[in-house]
Design brief:
- It holds the Pfam family 4HBT_2.
- This is YbgC/FadM family acyl-CoA thioesterase.
- The protein is α+β, with helices and mostly antiparallel strands.
- It has a single domain, classed as Thiol Ester Dehydrase, Chain A (Roll), CATH 3.10.129.
- The chain is built from three helices and six strands.
- The longest helix is centred in the first third of the chain and has 18 residues.
- The mean pLDDT is 92.
Length: 138
């Protein structure tokens, strides 16, 4: 799954390329889009669960500049007992094709009980849906 974003002037730092912190926002947009498309937010809310990022490990490969269009791709990688991982890539979009790798990240998240504010085991329907995403390569 992917979402495209045009790099704007307000994304830039004093060096005229995208500020490192903005990539976290781009990746977050990619995750929200991914969850929207799979209706995960509704699934989680129905079970009184919230999606919480526990760790992001990001590697910056090449600067992105104003006017460029980037594609953020997101896929589910693995599921543990209380956490799961997604892999995300930010690539330059040229002539409709995602080309040069700009950044990549591994995002570890957990599901939190909205009432207790504690991480819970990934099980039942939530686990089945996430596992299907891995099996389908999504």
């Amino acid at each position: 799954m992917s979402v495209d974003i045009k790099v704007r002037g307000y994304h830039l730092d004093i060096y005229h390329h995208v500020n490192n912190g903005r990539y976290l926002e781009f990746l977050e947009e990619g995750r929200w889009d991914y969850f929207d498309r799979h209706q995960f937010i509704q699934l989680f809310e129905a079970q009184n669960l919230a999606f919480v990022v526990a760790n992001i490990n990001i590697s910056y490969r090449r600067p992105a500049y104003a006017g460029e269009v980037i594609r953020i791709s997101t896929r589910m990688e693995k599921i543990g007992n209380k956490s799961a991982q997604m892999v995300q890539e930010v690539r330059l979009l040229e002539d409709g094709e995602a080309t040069t790798l700009i950044a990549d990240a591994v995002v570890t998240f957990c599901l939190m009980d909205s009432e207790t504010q504690k991480a819970v085991a990934i099980e039942g329907n939530a686990r089945a849906v996430l596992q299907t995403m891995i099996e389908d390569g999504l």
